[in-house]
Design a protein that fits this description.
- By secondary structure, this protein is mainly alpha-helical.
- The protein has a single domain, classed as Winged helix-like DNA-binding domain superfamily/Winged helix DNA-binding domain (Arc Repressor Mutant, subunit A, Orthogonal Bundle).
- The chain is 64% helix and 6% strand.
- The chain is built from 5 helices and 2 strands, in the order αααββαα.
- The chain has helices at 6-18, 24-30, 35-47, 65-85, 89-101; strands at 51-53, 61-63.
- It has a two-stranded antiparallel sheet.
- Strand 1 and strand 2 (61-63) form a beta hairpin.
- The radius of gyration is 19 Å and the shape is globular.
């Protein structure tokens, strides 16, 4: 199993919060991180204005507007990559052929 990049970990945290799991412990389990790492990553996401603490009695986190935009952009990008994965080899080949024919 490959290790996740920092960006993948950040996106897992943002997705977890977007799904409604807002407490640090819930984020820790949702993003599959230990307490120390989730604390560091949450602090980093707050500094980047992607997450913010809520003013509730318990410590919870929500996505900022910028965090929502980043997560949406990431999901669109990932979906575009998977579109090509879902094509059969002959569809990829015929699509590439069509693109190259239009250049003549």
């Amino acid at each position: 199993m490959a290790r996740r990049s920092k960006m993948e970990i950040y996106m897992d945290i943002l997705k977890t919060v977007a799904e409604g799991r807002r407490k640090r412990t819930h984020i820790m389990y949702g993003a599959n991180l230990d307490w120390y790492r989730v604390t560091d990553h949450i602090d980093s996401l707050i500094k980047q204005d992607l997450l913010k603490k809520t003013d509730d009695d318990s410590i919870c986190y929500t996505l900022t507007q910028r965090g929502k935009e980043v997560l949406e952009y990431y999901n669109r990008f990932r979906n575009k990559l998977h579109e090509k994965d879902n094509l059969l080899p002959y569809e990829i080949y015929s699509h590439e052929k069509t693109k190259s024919w239009g250049k003549d």
